[in-house]
Amino acid sequence: MIHDLAHIHPPFPELGEEVELFLETEAREGLLLYERDGELHKKPMAPWEKGLRVKVPLHASPFRYCFRLPQGYLGSHGLEKTLPRYDRFFHLLAKPLPPEWALGRVYYQIFPDRFRQGRPELAPKDGAWLYGGKPIRRKAWDEPPGEDGAREFYGGDLWGVLEALPYLEDLGVEVLYLTPIFQSPSSHRYDTEDYLRVDPHLGGEEALRALYEALEARGMKLILDGVFNHVGATHPWFQKALEDPTAPERGMFTFYPDGSYASFWGVKHMPKLDYASFLTQERFVHSPKAPVRYWMRLAHGWRLDVAHSIGEGGTNRKNARWLRALAQAAKEERPDALVFGELSYDTTPTLRAHTLDGAMHYAGFAHPVMEWLSGKDLHGNPVDVGLKEAWQTLWDHYQALPLQLRHAMYTFLSSHDIPRALWRLRGDKERFKTAYALLFAFPGSPALYYGDEIGLSQPNPYAVWRGDPFCRAPFPWDESRWDHGLLDFFRRLIRLKKTHPVLRRGGLLALPAPEGVLAFKRRLGEEEIWAFFAPEGARLSLPPGLDLLSGEEVAGEVEASYLLFQPLA
């Protein structure tokens, strides 16, 4: 029994619009059960050539439903003998939804200070200002990152990103995601001091405009990092709040009786915004100069930093309301804007509440895959996550997502916040390839963290298990330091994602496989791609078909640690 995005017509409906739901099944009779106004309504389904179908108005978003069949109840987590909980129903959303350009697109994440230097004269001078009471450091491009972290500047800028576009276009990248670019005293720029000014050390608005226009000319997209949970302690609004308890800006932050204040993760140079404040609402949501609106003229969307924490009173209270408001504000300025969030844990409650277009796929992809392949969790603790547990987690999160968001999830293995995948795998490039082949075969929008494609790793020993700051090394533009075989592998993966619609928007189905092999199939219409992953290697018995990564026809017994296979008709 199969029910996925391809079984919804139209797939991106308006609220109140009639949708037709299709279910592939051998059953010849059944009911649609859907929740409305606290009651469970029933509607008979009609036969169609592959199973059953039914039409129903989309009265609410989310629209929650399941199917009643002779065998039992079919919801998002499979067939059950008794009526499943509502959280195990399918969830369908009405517009606004992810723009169709975003489904299955290939991302490339750039940390601007570390990617490429276009204009050396823009780089901060050594000791130019104090950060955390210590002078900043200007580092040579080939120096490894060290413990000074946010105080270390390498001098990468947006002009450098612009210069690198031919390389990125050749790689096959479709969407750039830049970590923060607005004025800030740190190299990571997550402590913003002016949201309406592109940092002069990155080239200012002139460089952003040039980059945006060059991307537009290439048919590529630009996603900016929206740090709207907190500001930097040097921001003028927070300085006013500190200096004058009667200042209107005081209400934008949460101060406690002892004079302390709410901040991101307790880090005092990142005071947390309070969205209960009308001034915060005006400056970050409603005003034409709210950054989420203002920059939509030079970008195609936002990644919302620590989206799970945004809220009122120093907490995430009314989180869904304010995420929805931020996304709506961006889409009012640019109807095809994409807004996804850093939801580091369970994304399901937030995304089912019709808030964002998707999220960074930590819990539903990055964590289980890397735990399975490395034997350690994000923090370096040994874990016993086997193939079955990994697949169960991938499947569970996929099934729980609203159907229209499944292919808009920012799906990744490495980022600026966590250890690089190659380092976590102790430099094992075959296992690294297995991980990335799985990433590109899985539903969602695959994302590369700059440098992964040429084998960039980390300088710290495994005994020092950390991502930031060691995962933020400068990109080595000396091509003699690149793993060109790895780069070619990534080009082939990206080309497959872009040329096979089934990998962009196809459904996900379990696939029987020998012990020790994680296997699934993607299906869209009559097209199928079978995916196999066995880090220790496995012997597979296959019908005639095509090894998509090698381009060779195969049949019978095949040995592989990863395989993307298209059976021949």
UniProtKB/TrEMBL annotation:
EC nos: 3.2.1.-
GO molecular function: hydrolase activity, acting on glycosyl bonds
Domain Glycosyl hydrolase family 13 catalytic: 109-497
SMART domains xrefs: Aamy
Coiled coil location: none
Alphabetical list of Gene3D superfamilies matching this protein: Glycosidases
Keywords attached to this entry: Glycosidase, Hydrolase
Enzyme class: hydrolase
The protein's name in its UniProt record: Glycoside hydrolase family 13 protein
